[in-house]
Amino acid sequence: MSLLGNIIWLIFGGFVTALGYIIGGIVLCLTIVGIPFGLQSIKLGLASLAPFGKEVVESPHANSTLRIIFNLIWLVLFGWELALSHLFHAAILAITIIGIPFAKQHIKLIPLSLMPFGRDLR
C-alpha cells in the first residue's frame, strides 16, 4: 500500500510540493545565515517525496537550546505558513473518501513543517 500511495502522491502534487521545498531551500542557502534553514527546507522536500509508510521521529538532542531557538525562528518566519498550507490541503483532500489517506499524510507533515530542527520523517 505504501508504494502505491507514494506513487499516487507523487503524481498528484507530491512532486510539486517537494520541488517547492527544495527550490526554497536552495534560495535560502544562498546566504550564510540562511544555510541551516535552507537545509531544513531541503529535508522537508525530500521527506514530502514519499510520506506513506513513514512517521515523524524526534532525535535524542531535539530539544537542545540551539535547536529550540532555530525552531522558534523557523516557526515565526516560515513554519506557520507551511503548516496552514498542509492543513488547507488536508481539508480539501478529506472531502472525498479517496482523498482521506492523502489528507492524513498532510496532517503528518504539519509537525515537521512547524518545527523541523531535531525531527525527521523515517
UniProtKB/TrEMBL annotation:
<feature type="transmembrane region" description="Helical">
    <location>
        <begin position="86"/>
        <end position="103"/>
    </location>
</feature>
<dbReference type="InterPro" id="IPR031308">
    <property type="entry name" value="UCP028777"/>
</dbReference>
<feature type="domain" description="Inner membrane component">
    <location>
        <begin position="69"/>
        <end position="119"/>
    </location>
</feature>
<dbReference type="GO" id="GO:0005886">
    <property type="term" value="C:plasma membrane"/>
</dbReference>
<keyword id="KW-1133">Transmembrane helix</keyword>
<dbReference type="InterPro" id="IPR005185">
    <property type="entry name" value="YccF"/>
</dbReference>
<keyword id="KW-0812">Transmembrane</keyword>
<feature type="transmembrane region" description="Helical">
    <location>
        <begin position="6"/>
        <end position="39"/>
    </location>
</feature>
<dbReference type="Pfam" id="PF03733">
    <property type="entry name" value="YccF"/>
</dbReference>
<dbReference type="InterPro" id="IPR052937">
    <property type="entry name" value="Inner_membrane_protein"/>
</dbReference>
<feature type="domain" description="Inner membrane component">
    <location>
        <begin position="4"/>
        <end position="54"/>
    </location>
</feature>
<keyword id="KW-0472">Membrane</keyword>
<protein>
    <submittedName>
        <fullName>YccF domain-containing protein</fullName>
    </submittedName>
</protein>
